[in-house]
């Protein structure tokens, strides 16, 4: 039996990780070997938040400290982004928050120093050579181990929407892919990715992890690269399906939506009213539609059958989460989700600019460079 807990006593914590690329302001290409002083300065400016290198030397990752309110999330993301932008500019580069650089070639990239990265490259070969991608991961801490597993399973149905809202990777290798989140296609070439199957208890999750370890397939649960997973380090559920958002306002809104979903489903778990789990195959189908069409997707309707406009879905969800948004102090951020649906994600703005500039007579390469300029501007937006 689940112990009863008051719905006004549902304390949750947040942590947000974002991955950035460093670009040359002249060529707009990635800086394959940036000055390492960028990372040192960024870490100093970030204060209590963390900054770390990523798989490629042209990347860095920020991670906020534990935030106990959405107000703290806003301040933390503003500080980490400002640290990245300022540090990059002070060393002659620019930072972009997008999940794929529009035209960078993998053959010119340099893997970061470290045994872990070297082993990763040797093991995964061509799959990892194409991995010029970055993501946004959101941790929410709440409840006990079993509660987190049940809520994680219930959250799976909403993963496609979260991906659609965050799409920022419509180009790859200088080509328009036709996808709004092509990052997910590339990442899917690695094992242990995608939507996890439904899990009902920590014991079930732990048994699966131990099976992997007994077969020497992984060292720890951190190598389960699912779209959503229990953290193997923190008492959190980590949502990993999102692209990096060029605009900070979108990143904060998606974090707020995820937090509201967690709180809502935690309340329903306490009340014993969690919704039945849809088939993983259907969630995965909606996930593909999100990758392909972004905020223009018509998802399979999990409740009534047929197809559902993402705008109708988002409006209904925002209404259902109103009490949770009020409790978390993020009503405006949750409403901004509807603005993303109606005006587009970063991917839509990139594609629109590229096509417009081509119609206006710019060459293919000129148009792509202007897309990079757009992402640079949006990454700095609202940072002062």
Could you say which overall geometry the principal axes of the C-alpha atoms support?
globular
Taking the sheet with the most strands, its summary is: 7 strands, antiparallel
CATH topology: Creatine Kinase, Chain A, domain 2
Domains counted in the coordinates: how many? 1
Describe the fold and architecture.
The protein is built from 14 helices and 13 strands. Helices cover 48% and strands 14% of the residues. By secondary structure, it is of the alpha+beta class. The protein has a single domain (11-380), classed as Creatine Kinase, Chain A, domain 2 (2-Layer Sandwich). A hairpin with a 6-residue loop joins strand 12 and strand 13 (307-309).
Question: Characteristics of this structure?
Answer:
384 residues, alpha+beta, Creatine Kinase, Chain A, domain 2, seven-stranded antiparallel β-sheet, two-stranded antiparallel sheet, 13 strands
Compact summary:
The N and C termini lie far apart (51 Å). The protein has helices at residues 37-46, 70-90, 115-129, 145-155, 159-166, 182-187, 202-214, 248-271, 280-293, 310-320, 322-328, 331-343, 346-359, 364-380, and strands at 13-23, 50-53, 59-63, 94-96, 135-141, 171-172, 175-176, 193-194, 225-226, 228-230, 236-243, 298-300, 307-309. With 384 residues, the chain is α+β, with helices and mostly antiparallel strands.
């Amino acid at each position: 039996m689940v112990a009863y807990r008051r719905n006004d006593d549902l304390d949750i914590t947040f942590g947000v990780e974002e991955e950035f690329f460093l670009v040359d302001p002249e060529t707009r290409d990635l800086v394959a070997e940036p000055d390492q002083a960028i990372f040192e300065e960024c870490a100093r400016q970030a204060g209590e938040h963390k900054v770390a290198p990523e798989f490629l030397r042209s990347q860095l990752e920020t991670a906020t400290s534990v935030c106990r309110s959405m107000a703290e999330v806003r301040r933390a993301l503003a500080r980490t982004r400002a640290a990245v932008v300022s540090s990059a500019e002070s060393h002659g580069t620019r930072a972009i928050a997008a999940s794929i650089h529009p035209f960078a070639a993998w053959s010119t990239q340099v893997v970061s120093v470290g045994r872990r990265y070297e082993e990763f490259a040797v093991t995964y070969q061509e799959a990892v050579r194409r991995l010029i991608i970055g993501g946004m991961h959101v941790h929410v801490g709440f409840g006990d181990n079993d509660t987190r597993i049940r809520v994680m399973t219930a959250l799976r149905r909403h993963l496609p929407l979260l991906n659609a809202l965050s799409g920022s990777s419509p180009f790859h290798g200088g080509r328009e892919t036709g996808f709004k989140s092509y990052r997910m296609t590339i990442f899917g070439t690695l094992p242990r990715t995608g939507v996890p199957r439904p899990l009902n208890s920590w014991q079930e999750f732990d048994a699966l992890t131990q099976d992997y370890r007994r077969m020497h397939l992984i060292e720890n649960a951190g190598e389960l690269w699912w779209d959503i997973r229990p953290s193997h380090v923190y008492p959190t559920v980590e949502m990993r399906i999102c692209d990096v958002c060029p605009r900070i306002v979108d990143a904060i809104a998606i974090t707020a939506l995820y937090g509201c979903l967690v709180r809502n489903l935690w309340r329903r778990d306490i009340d014993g009213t969690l919704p039945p789990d849809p088939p993983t195959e259907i969630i995965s189908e909606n996930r593909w539609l999100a990758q392909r069409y972004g905020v223009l997707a018509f998802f399979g309707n999990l409740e009534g059958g047929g197809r559902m406009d993402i705008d109708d879905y988002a409006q209904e969800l925002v209404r259902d989460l109103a009490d949770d948004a009020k409790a978390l102090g993020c009503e405006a951020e949750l409403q901004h989700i509807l603005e993303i649906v109606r005006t587009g994600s970063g991917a839509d703005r990139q594609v629109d600019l590229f096509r417009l500039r081509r119609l206006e007579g710019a060459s293919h390469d000129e148009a792509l460079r202007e897309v990079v300029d757009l992402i640079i501007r949006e990454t700095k937006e609202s940072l002062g």
